[in-house]
TrEMBL record:
Residue span, DUF1214 domain: 259-336
Lineage of producing organism: Bacteria, Pseudomonadati, Pseudomonadota, Gammaproteobacteria, Alteromonadales
Keyword annotations of the record: Signal
Pfam families named in the record: DUF1214, DUF1254
Span of the signal peptide: 1-21
Gene3D superfamilies: 2.60.120.1600
Sequence ranges assigned to domain DUF1254 in this UniProt record: 63-116
Name under which the protein is recorded: DUF1254 domain-containing protein
């Protein structure tokens, strides 16, 4: 029986290598798109966008190696929509087929560090936090995409020290491979999925993003909504489970009008942040966000964040950009019970200011 299983595994491996050699599969972004590639639909978009992210990272550092972003996400180079400057990022594609784990360094108490696993079909595993050794597994395929977030308040020297201590150990190092994809249908489906977000905001309100980022292997599966799952991959690929991050996403506001929101501190277990994007979902300008780590509180302990209100306004983020509008993403890192259970939301508090 064991010989039969081994023979089957070798046969499958040879078939995979043959497919790559024949040009039917790829392990690189360079030829991910092809005129004869798979037609993209709403159903397969999340998996194919994940494949694109995997081969893109793999091109840079290979498999089982960590790509460290040594600076906060630059506003002129963003790999996916709705990136942020809340944390330093590190990413990796890991072959978990024969067993794998990641070792994370110990960091000072009160600082933020997390590891998030994204499976080949864009299902989101719950995060693990802090130092230690964590087992890496998946419910589908052989590879797992890791997103590592590290506290942005570390100095450059501290950040590099902690990133360099992160280590992946895996018993197999096969590259991730994917089918070729038709470029036109990919971008058409992506555009149509992004266009669904305003209606989800209108009908879902504070719970618009619920059901986008879940795993079939834990209780989050009860929230899974197929349409939201597809939209989530288009508007915020790699988003976290609700237990780890709660996202508030706004509609568009005119970029030439001052807006403000004043709110009570939600007292998240990590921190809150708000990031400004253009119509396409990308940051612009040098200052794109504010957070409880950077914002100046009011005398009564509340916070006021200003958008496009000028340099003299408290906690102001510029909003003028070529798209003519701006929108917001509010993130609650390790949300408090008031946010996660009681439904406390901040974006509804935004108002235009004369």
């Amino acid at each position: 029986m064991k010989k039969l299983v081994l023979a089957s595994a070798i046969s499958i491996s040879l078939l995979s290598l043959s497919a790559i050699a024949d040009g039917n599969m790829t392990s690189s972004l360079k030829d991910f798109f092809s005129d004869k590639g798979t037609t993209v639909t709403q159903d397969n978009y999340p998996t194919l966008e994940t494949a694109r992210q995997m081969v893109k990272n793999q091109d840079l550092v290979g498999v089982n190696n960590i790509l460290h972003k040594r600076e906060l996400t630059p506003t002129d180079k963003q790999p996916v929509v709705r990136m942020n400057r809340d944390t330093y990022y590190s990413m990796a594609v890991v072959d978990v087929s024969q067993g794998a784990y990641i070792t994370m360094p110990d960091i000072p108490k009160g600082k933020y560090m997390s590891v998030e696993g994204i499976t080949e079909d864009h299902r989101i595993q719950p995060m693990v936090y802090g130092g230690g050794t964590f087992n890496l597994t998946t419910h589908t395929g052989d590879h797992l995409y890791l997103v590592i977030r590290l506290d942005a308040t570390f100095s450059k020297e501290e950040k590099k020290m902690y990133q360099d201590q992160m280590k992946i150990t895996a018993k197999s190092n096969k590259p991730f491979t994917t089918e070729h994809v038709d470029k036109t249908s990919f971008h058409n489906v992506e555009k149509s999925l992004k266009a669904k977000m305003p209606m989800l905001l209108k009908t879902g309100g504070p719970e618009a993003t619920f059901g986008m980022f879940t795993a079939p292997t834990d209780s989050s599966k009860e929230l899974f909504v197929k349409e939201k799952y597809a939209v989530g991959a288009a508007i915020g690929w790699g988003g976290a489970q609700l237990i780890d991050n709660i996202y508030e996403v706004s509609g568009n506001y005119p970029a030439d009008t001052c807006h403000q929101m004043t709110f009570e501190d939600p007292k998240n277990k990590a921190f809150w942040s708000v990031t400004v994007y253009n119509k396409q979902g990308f940051m612009f300008g040098k200052l794109a966000n504010a957070s409880s780590n950077t914002a100046i509180p009011n005398k009564d302990g509340t916070y006021t964040v200003s958008f496009g209100c000028g340099k003299g306004a408290i906690n102001n983020i510029p909003t003028k950009n070529d798209s003519g509008v701006f929108n917001l993403a509010m993130r609650h890192y390790i949300p408090s019970d008031r946010v996660r259970i009681d439904g406390y939301r901040l974006i509804p508090l935004i108002k235009a200011v004369d």
